[in-house]
Amino acid sequence: MQKGLSPHPRIRNVIAVGSGKGGVGKSTTAVNLAVALAKLGARVGLLDADIYGPSVPAMLGLSGRPESPDNKSIEPMRAFGVETMSIGYLIEDETPMIWRGPMATSAMTQFFNDTLWDDLDYLLIDLPPGTGDIQLTLTQKIPLAGAVIVTTPQDIATLDAKKALKMFEKVEVPVL
After folding, report:
1. Residue 4 lies inside a defined structural domain of this protein
2. How far does the chain reach from its first CA to its final CA, in angstroms?
3. Given the DSSP bridges, would you call strands 82-86 and 77-79 parallel, antiparallel or unpaired?
């Protein structure tokens, strides 16, 4: 965990799933890892932090809107034993997310803090591709136990994956 950050009271381990490039299987890896951990008996959550291109709801076959019991917090959606939260539950499929970085990072941290997660062994965070605002904010505000970097064997994909690796190393998040 990064220095100066307190752990979430209900989440034992937060693991970021990232990549330097889109289309390399990052969301597929995050979803499959979450479902596999749940099948092994772990209590698992999955936060879709790809604000601009959320895919977790479709990958898990979920639709509908999560409930908010007090208009401040939000109940996670559930599938295959995994609690999930995504901007994809709150917008129409065809709606583009035309948000600047601060707005997107605010949404991601709000989902982390205001979702009524049960006690979790793992919360996986499916990041957008790259090493931009959302990734930097994540490492500054959310206590990470580690990160998984996903890539494909193409030269450009591995080059960008190395950038993601260096970013996590620079902010002292272990790459698993």
Report:
1. no
2. 13
3. antiparallel
